[in-house]
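ingest -> validate -> predict -> emit
validate: passed (alphabet ok, no gaps, 254 aa)
predict: started
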Amino acid sequence: MSRLAGKVAIVTGASSGIGRETAKLFAREGAKVVVGARRQAELDSLVKEINAHGGQAVAVAGDVQSESYAEALVRTAIDKFGGLDIAFNNAGTIGPKGATTEIAEQDWNNALAINLTSAFLGAKHQIPAMLKHGAGSIIFTSTFVGYTAAFPGVAAYAASKAGLIGLTQALAAEYGPQGVRVNAILPAAIDTPMYREFNDTEDKQKFLVNLHALKRVGRTEEVAKSVLYLASDDSAFVTGTAHLIDGGFSVTRT
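emit:
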């Protein structure tokens, strides 16, 4: 039996990378999916691909920094599919890169708005929809950066993504008694457009690969399977976790 049969899910940051792969996997596992991102054309192609393979999906393009967009995603899930069971709040940005003392305040604020405030806004509207039928699973995409390791030049990214872990724990404690589970995934290097943008030379890629115990970067489908676990009833007794998907990065010192 499909692991998400009868479920309705929202996936943000769905136009590429981890979000896109997860939306497709959710649909294959029986979920009806509302996909969100800024790029309408990429969302439309994703919906077409999901529907062509027998799934059900609808796209809502917009900016996760906007509370009205968070409301629109939930409203679409309810209007089109009858409710909401799962939310994968995955949209994010690396933000400003370089010396912390040179970061402009507005760039810092933008990174926090996209990576952290958007997750709060999403959960703010997702949780009431889940409470209507007494259960739900929310997953945030955080990172190992600022949790088990650090790199120079990405302070806004590290701080905003680390904030998601605090939000995860607070929401898990607050809404666990009402049946809503909240977890965060912490990927290490995953082969996505964002990874390739940040590691744009062979030397950078070789250095980063060697930091992982598995001596390779992860694949988007591998992350999607971990998200599926947290979304499904397989993880019914799992909440408030910072779930590392890091290929052994956190334990490697060679």
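The helical segments are 17-28, 40-52, 67-81, 105-131, 155-175, 193-198, 202-210, 220-231.
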